[in-house]
């Protein structure tokens, strides 16, 4: 059942077309994450949903009601801002209860709600403090608490964790996930941290230049990207992209020619007409260093040891550098010649207009 | 060693400042204790506190003190209230915003004497003033502002002069207000009035304190407007302390009493400052 439906949404700033026809439907209780490069329109989309920016075309429907032209206060949404935007002259308690007081909720009810929210976010001891007497993480929790007390239909978050240090960010991320589990409320979350996107989201929306590039579960996006843009955007280190200059068909098998090395690829995994050339996308963990019988050869340029694993940067015959994930304590030396085995099942092909032309086989 | 060098280097400015302050003050104190009337030169004998007694028992003293305080408080209220309201109104972008801002701020650049002359001759004059013209065209009897409501007339002139200062400070302060806070309030269901009441006004506490402090310093000593327009009259109706002192010194040539009045004015300023700092000063320390 679609809860929030966005249809053909457009947003023009004075001389910039920021949203170019966004179509998206979100189910009740879903955790949706918007990611994309800086300036792609994530905040604009979120703010348009919130009603802080007016749309220039298209509709937004929430719970069966058209809210496109509605004032933001009437939309029943709550937003957590990147700067927290706490009211500086009010105590934490007053910050939490502001919306309820404006809505003329009875005092006893306000107190009960503030009490339960502050207990669940560990703000009890801070209720009488002013925002400037709080740490960044505490401010963040107040901002989240302020959104929760109102029991909105949808929570909107605009990069809520980006002002926190790395350790706190991990902790708050977990708290958010827990919160979503507990409340079950629909959440829309903007970030450009892909770890946040992958760990929090039920579905991820990838935006690029004001358009939706792909929508899917984190795993779908990771294994079956629609385009080269998504493939490169998701995953660290990036997916390796190697050009195949010539493709020849032999029965049910395609032979991809990577500058002299041949890789066999099942023909039934390619959609549509057979291409003459393609770009082969392989993630670092789907390449393995082998003693012999590898698919491609290269020379180690540099090894990055991360403790739990190592990434070998390997120069191929065409002077391109690819990244291969290796075991943590593998004895790799610079300038060593290596053989690389390709996991064909996890390999994707892109055509010259950067769209994907292959499908990943169902997992068995 | 280091310390004494610091002191040595600081000494010239400290000494200069001391001289700057001490000499006029001690001369005023000295003059206030001797008979010093320009009409009777040479009879400068010590008279103790007699000058203070003369000044305080002067028939103009009570009206002058009360007029000073009324003028101060009324102008403060008018400039702060109108200043906040107008700056909030012109904060949102609209067509011609730049010009409106310049026009609102420009009275500040007009000299007090000129300001008083404009109001006296162009606005409040009972024959060819604009107020009279308005009254006439409404079929009413024109009012002679300066003689019917002298203190009120001075208050209007001084407020007109100082409102731009308040607006200047408040407009600048409003520009530093966080827009995300306003958006958050908007999403919390706040109307424009709520945002003004619960976010903008608290945001302006400190600038209001600054405006009140600075204006107080100048408003305790308003002189040119009174001198040019009402001349302190009719009677003592628009005489404030500064004008009374001028009256003593230059119209009655009694420097001794004028000095005593000056010292009293210093005392009054300190009393006002004491209450003011207690009332608004805490906003400055936040
Ligand atoms: N008020 C505005 N007027 C004109 N252009 C704007 C305005 N706000 C945003 N834009 C433009 O719209 C585009 C999208 O902006 P938006 O803030 O949505 O980016 P974003 O995806 O949130 O980026 P980031 O990750 O850096 O926050 C940008 O190119 C920006 O320059
Ligand atoms: Mg943004």
From TrEMBL, chain A:
It holds the Pfam family TOBE_2. Keywords: ATP-binding, Nucleotide-binding, Sugar transport, Transport. The keyword Protein transport does not apply. Gene3D superfamilies: 2.40.50.100, Nucleic acid-binding proteins, P-loop containing nucleotide triphosphate hydrolases. It comes from the Bacteria. Residues 4-234 form the ABC transporter domain. This is Sn-glycerol-3-phosphate ABC transporter ATP-binding protein UgpC. SUPFAM superfamilies: MOP-like, P-loop containing nucleoside triphosphate hydrolases. GO terms for molecular function: ATP binding. The keyword Membrane does not apply.
UniProtKB/TrEMBL annotation, chain B:
Residues 65-276 form the ABC transmembrane type-1 domain. It is a multi-pass membrane protein. Its main location: membrane. It comes from the Bacteria. The chain crosses the membrane at residues 9-31, 69-90, 102-119, 151-174, 204-228, 255-277. It is found in: Cell membrane. The keyword Iron-sulfur does not apply. Keywords: Cell membrane, Membrane, Transmembrane, Transmembrane helix, Transport. InterPro entries: MetI-like (IPR000515), MetI-like_sf (IPR035906). PANTHER family: BLR7065 PROTEIN, INTEGRAL MEMBRANE SUGAR TRANSPORT PROTEIN. Belongs to the binding-protein-dependent transport system permease family. This is Sugar ABC transporter permease. It comes from Marinomonas sargassi.
